[in-house]
Amino acid sequence: MNPWIMMAGAIVAEIVGTTALKLSDGFARLGWAAVVVAGYGLSFYLLSQALKTLPIGLVYAIWSGVGTVGTAIIGLVLFGETFSLFKAAGIALIVGGVAVLNAGGAH
Fold this sequence. Notes:
By secondary structure, the chain is mostly helical. It has one domain.
């Protein structure tokens, strides 16, 4: 399978796992706790498959960066978390950093 598709799947699974972590209420809600374990397990599996062909620095930067941005958006939309200028700047820096790493890896 295409390693970039596996990366995308790993990111989605990580965001699902992290969102379920919030919903699990400290693992008190077992259904959500199971989603946490499944989400992170699938994410790490797909990440490991992508790492067979893609560089680790690039993979980890994209996985963690896009996962962080996605989770921040989920927090805003689903949980009503605040979104300040500082958070927007942080997200812009993450996206910019991933773009720079990606551009550097192409040479």
